[in-house]
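Reposting from the mailing list since nobody answered there.

I have sequence plus structure tokens for a pair of proteins and want to know whether others read the tokens the same way I do. The first protein:
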Amino acid sequence: MKKLLLLLSFLVTQVLQAQEIKSSFGLKAGPNFYTLSPGGDGVSGRTGLHAGVWYRQTRTPVFSFQTELLFSMEGWKFSNNAETITNKFNYLQLPILLQFRTRYGLYIETGPQVGLRLSGKQETDNNNGAIDFIPIDTWTNRWIFSGAVGGGYLKGRFGLGARYNFGITSLLKNEDGNSNGLAVSLLYAFQ
């Protein structure tokens, strides 16, 4: 039994020493397609942009942890017969992701994301003084939590990724209204 334990501890030590942690970082940017869920009649998505930095630690040949800091433009539109109101929000997003990577550069990822609302406003295409907008802080939460799932390709310096973010906490203070969206990214890695 002692010999077996000694052999197992030797093997574990060798495996751990063979696993060198590699780090990489880069930039990403692209379009966002966000909406409010459940939306209801007249609610549609808003297209915006996101941009930021990412940092990856590769722990094994197939598993990595990636942290990002992103500026993200999100929101939704509400239309009725008279006008369209656009709700525009800017967030600072911090996703923390577990990635499963292949040697060919393909990857899938999932993890939590926290967002801090930096600004928000409402606009209308036809406001003749008939609409008084309520200040954003009175009806929206400043912090939101989301889940993320996605994938992409990054081999060498350039890549492409796509991620779906689904709201876990409500964007709205007194009712259900999760911010959900798709982000498509061009990736650049510093080597």
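The second protein, same order (residues first, tokens after):
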Amino acid sequence: MRERTIASHFVRAALRGAVRQGLDCTPLLRQAGIQPALLDEPRARIAPQQFARLLQLLWERLDDEYLGCGRLRSRRGTFAMMCHAIIHCRSLGKALARGALFYGLFPGAPSIRLSREGDWVRLSIEDAHLWDPDHFLLECLLVIWHRLGSWLIGQRIRLEEVSFAYTAPAHVGEYELLFPGRRRFDAASSGLLFHARYLAMPLLQDERTLKQFLQHSPADLLARPDGGDSLGGQIRRLLGRDCARWADLDAIARQLHMSPQTLRRHLREEGASFQELKDQLRRDLAIYQLGRAELSIQQIAEQLGFSEPSAFHRAFKKWTGLTPGAYRAQEH
């Protein structure tokens, strides 16, 4: 959903390498439509388009696709050249292997390795040489390789597990959007585990579709959250955008062919509840609408199902740390 929003943590993390190099990031934030004061509020969130724009501006300004987190720069165009190197491969397995070899040519680059584990294959990324205190670049690389592979074969690669060679970070609640499925921390390596059958699948893309893909990638790969196969993602899609017509838990359970008790249990296993999912969807829809001038705050409150604007004000401040009026003022 385009209304998915991105936590301000990722904005601060994306800027850290640039700030470390002494770059004044305020003009870049303003160019991306992000008011710098928004970063002082830990609960604030931004639209995906703003985040994608910020990444593009950082890449241009730094001439570094590693955003200042690598030992050496990865000059702009490196990712595009890697894509041109793999686009004519006959299968996903050969494309991933060639991509790993390509990045292996650069000293100090994160090492990418493919290894078979029975019926499974693991794509591991070694980031020991990076300056990446937030694990931001590693998160980016894992997301990019997953979504690039899915794009190449024209279908979403279902992840069996995503492992991380570090303890669960403070922003772990955001990982469901980045890495749907099982997540394991304090692992021996960071990487993606998926079924080996995908490796034999042919590439459905070519030079023509690659040209279009590279107009916005990899920024849009990172800015587009992925609910994937998670139960939370399925429920968000079933609820939709019209809050006044949202189904209750019993109706959603019927659509998912399970009992309400089973639905609640599965949500608990994902660390969520039905009410939390509705609140998150309301929050994201509110941020999406506040970024546009079409509706007044009162109209947005009504559209989101609040009986009065004051209730919307209280809820929005609880979600983001800002009132709707203050958030809209930051946006414009």
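Reply #1 (J.P.):
I read it the same way you do. The beta strands are 6-7, 45-46, 111-117, 120-126, 159-163, 182-184, 190-195.
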